[in-house]
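We read letters as residues; the integers encode the fold. Take this protein.
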Amino acid sequence: MDRNEMTRHARLAAEALMADVSGARAVLVATPDGFDLAHAGALPLDASRLAAMVSSMAALGDAASREAAIGQPHCMVVDSSAGRLVMRSVQWRGEPMVVVLLADTSALLGMVLNALNGVERSMGIA
């Protein structure tokens, strides 16, 4: 794995999501073990801290999915009073990554999910 190339693709994906999703406030691309690869957007955030939290959320989603026998989780949504945090597990050349999109309440959840589903295609790895 070329970490520089992975980071470059992560940055391009973050920037593309920001441009493509109406209501997007920030995008974070992280490793499953909680390290920030890239982020974009105007929303001030501690990317390293959020990456660590998202890693824990992904582990909880995985455990809950396994317990409920519903298969491998792909996406999680936190729907809050002032916006949404939507995270999606993706692969880049066999390397797992987590893409997180923070959006305001004007963002349509279906559009956010569709954009996140297209991240692997946009990175040339689907």
